[in-house]
């Protein structure tokens, strides 16, 4: 880690000026640099995609007013705002607990809302969304 120092000036009774270092915070030795290009409207979302420290199976709303997706499996600055056809689709059939589901289910959902898996094996991947 690299320390950042700020100096402040202290005047003593004898009018001698002394500069003292004050450590404000430390920076990590690795800095992430990613270029961000203008939106590519006719691009195709790449699901799942990796962005920062996460893996995303659907459009995300990160540092944006609208949901967007990466056009690469690992975000490289190429992106687009999601339209209705870009949002992730349910994967059928999917395996949840000991059953195979061919449609959205409310099984295991505390509020009774229907949901589906975004992968074939919910038990392993735990990736899901509410059904509309």
From TrEMBL:
<dbReference type="GO" id="GO:0007338">
    <property type="term" value="P:single fertilization"/>
</dbReference>
<dbReference type="GO" id="GO:0005576">
    <property type="term" value="C:extracellular region"/>
</dbReference>
<feature type="disulfide bond">
    <location>
        <begin position="104"/>
        <end position="131"/>
    </location>
</feature>
<dbReference type="InterPro" id="IPR000562">
    <property type="entry name" value="FN_type2_dom"/>
</dbReference>
<dbReference type="GO" id="GO:0048240">
    <property type="term" value="P:sperm capacitation"/>
</dbReference>
<dbReference type="GO" id="GO:0008201">
    <property type="term" value="F:heparin binding"/>
</dbReference>
<dbReference type="InterPro" id="IPR013806">
    <property type="entry name" value="Kringle-like"/>
</dbReference>
<dbReference type="InterPro" id="IPR036943">
    <property type="entry name" value="FN_type2_sf"/>
</dbReference>
<keyword id="KW-1015">Disulfide bond</keyword>
<protein>
    <submittedName>
        <fullName>Binder of sperm protein homolog 1</fullName>
    </submittedName>
</protein>
<keyword id="KW-0964">Secreted</keyword>
<dbReference type="Pfam" id="PF00040">
    <property type="entry name" value="fn2"/>
</dbReference>
<dbReference type="InterPro" id="IPR051666">
    <property type="entry name" value="SP_Capacitation_Regulator"/>
</dbReference>
<feature type="disulfide bond">
    <location>
        <begin position="90"/>
        <end position="116"/>
    </location>
</feature>
<keyword id="KW-0278">Fertilization</keyword>
<dbReference type="GO" id="GO:0009986">
    <property type="term" value="C:cell surface"/>
</dbReference>
<keyword id="KW-0677">Repeat</keyword>
<comment type="similarity">
    <text>Belongs to the seminal plasma protein family.</text>
</comment>
<feature type="domain" description="Fibronectin type-II">
    <location>
        <begin position="85"/>
        <end position="132"/>
    </location>
</feature>
<feature type="domain" description="Fibronectin type-II">
    <location>
        <begin position="40"/>
        <end position="84"/>
    </location>
</feature>
